[in-house]
Amino acid sequence: MRPILIRAGRVIDPSRGMDGVADIYLEDGKIAAVGRDIGLPDDALTIDAAGKIVSPGLIDLHVHLREPGQEDLETVASGAMAAAAGGFTAVCAMPNTDPVTDNQAAVGFIVSQAQRAGKARVYPIGAISLGQKGQQLAEFGELVGAGAVAVSDDGKPVVSSHLMRTALEYARTFGIAVADHCEDPTLSAGGAMHEGIVSTRLGLKGIPAAAEEIMVARDILLAEHTGGHVHLCHMSTRGSVELIRRAKEKGVRVTAEVCPHHFTLTHERCEGYDTNAKMNPPLREPEDREALRQALRDGTIDAICTDHAPHHYDAKEREFDDAPNGIIGLETALGLAITELVEPGLLTLCDLVNRMSTAPAKIFKLPGGTLAAGSPADVTITDPKAAWIVNPADFFSRSRNTPFGGRRLTGRAELTIVRGQVVYQREQRAPTGRSG
Amino acid sequence: MSAPSLGKDLVGLEPLSAEQIQLILDTAEPFKEVSERAIKKVPALRGKTIVNLFFEASTRTRISFEFAEKRLSADTVNVAAVGSSVSKGETLVDTAKNLEAMRIDMVVIRHGSSGAAQFLGQRIRSNVINAGDGKHEHPTQGLLDMLTLRDRFGRIKGLKVAICGDILHSRVARSNIWGLTKLGAEVGVCGPASLLPRHVEELGVTILPRIEDAIQWADALNVLRLQLERMQAGFLPSLREYNRVFGITNERLARAPKDLLILHPGPMNRGVEIDSDVADGPHSVILPQVTNGVAVRMAVLYLLAGGSPHWAGRGDER
Prior knowledge:
The complex is a heterodimer. Chain A is an alpha/beta fold. Chain A has helices at residues 76-85, 104-117, 140-146, 161-174, 185-188, 197-202, 209-226, 238-250, 260-264, 286-298, 313-316, 333-342, 349-363, and strands at 4-13, 18-27, 30-35, 45-48, 53-56, 58-63, 88-93, 121-124, 151-152, 178-180, 193-194, 206-207, 230-232, 254-258, 303-304, 379-389, 408-418, 421-425. In chain A, 31% of the residues lie in helices and 22% in strands. Chain A starts with a strand and ends in an 11-residue tail after the last strand.
């Protein structure tokens, strides 16, 4: 394997509080050295990163890769490539596949598909309950043994408080977090969007903010009671932020994530019944969006995730009530985060790398998130000034369901290195050209 | 002064201007007379083909549209969801594109999903008329209610109209709210809080918590049908209690400071939201509403097909 020297980039490593121009030397799949004027070995590949950000690779704790079961929407390989093109060196794949990733063989299959693809790392998340049915615990020990990094029934809430309690307790044995999709289904049943003035006008059944907050409150209480680590998926309301803030002050083991669409868009985006604005949790109100942004700034919310959820265009090309929830996000997340959070001065680039790499690595105890010598050579080179327009036709993802088509963004990944190898390099073309 | 047109589709009253709504009501006036003739037919839409695409059961609205179409000399086809390719799993967009391939001019759609009419209108070139979409809008019902109010009061502006019942699930309520407020009426909504949509007051309506408040306040009551399935869904404890707390009875109306006009979009649950002696009483305009429904639908069909309001003969400015 050829060593790589990344020269003269602005190196940002939140794990060590570093932000300055330096060279990085990668050898044998590890970070070998970070410093000024590192000598150039004869065989090294040299990458000029002047004017670019060099950071630990971005990590996404929450994606849906659809394999096995719906390979026409996405595969582990296409998802891992889309991830690399978005600057992610690792993604965590939710278990709502078909069949459900609730046993060691299923986990092993995803691990082997990811190895074969050789792009971004893919870490499987195992199911909390067999078949995600919310009844019997899956075999966490075997899931972890096969490579699962956390457990979740994401897509479905854990309705039974008893099951959630048991999962939090049992997960402690293996040192993993329980990631929960917080939704009280008795309040959200049949809902198509956020319950508010827009749902009233459009005549769509609303999902109240309380449907999320009730479960956030419950999970926090159970985490406090059990001492387990609960990770709260895709937070969307100001009430949830408030609950998490108080829990963290009390020292409860709670972490939380937020998606770019929730800190960028609001329920107004559902006007005209645009099904690319249909997701669960739904787009909320401007006050919620503002609270989520502030929560990223003050650390109440730890991480930015995508909830990348591929769907066929014709599944979205239908009545709002009947369209599936979710949007893809791997190839727009970094640009949205820079445009919406860094450009307005809410986060520094160092804060952003923390929320998209260092903090996520810590939450699921993943390798990476740091440029310390000896760490895996997972590195993202970002052009923070690149202006581009989202063109879904350019995506590596097999799906195109995004509400951000045509949006003008600033900042995008230029080059992605995983295990010391370049897995993605953007072609230098017109801003709307195919990127790589 | 050039008259405003309606555009390609009628998906709701929310997107319409006051002038456009006025235009429809004025255009309906001369069409009322057509239905009173021995030979109830004018050639306005001769050669036009219209599909009535009903994904939900409907008697009154479907028949009313069909009469309106036939009295305008259009060729019409009725498609009910049951027994068509829709029941074989065909998507709405495929159904629409197949109809369009048969070169139809207009589609009247009734559908259980909010937004279905707009969805259709954005995907086919034919004119689309919303005959009720989910809980969103039922614009021709709103228009016929307004025409009936105008007939009785001679004006819409300044009227106080209380819409009573299940506002949350009602497309009739939404179309009435948009149409009436645009023409300068005051609108109140009255019903159990569990059946009022969130932030409904932001639509410019007054919330009247009790039916007695509505009766004191209003010039007219538009009494909505209470869908019986709301009980199973847990929004209400019982029909009996609904009638006792919110039912429109002569006893309650007797305490009104003035005679109230009573509207109901039908079909009625007699003895639930409205007592029979009110429905059949002197202040009820429930049957004139039905008559006006045909005229209003004729006006909408005529205007969307490009008909000139002058030809139809505009009513006086009111």
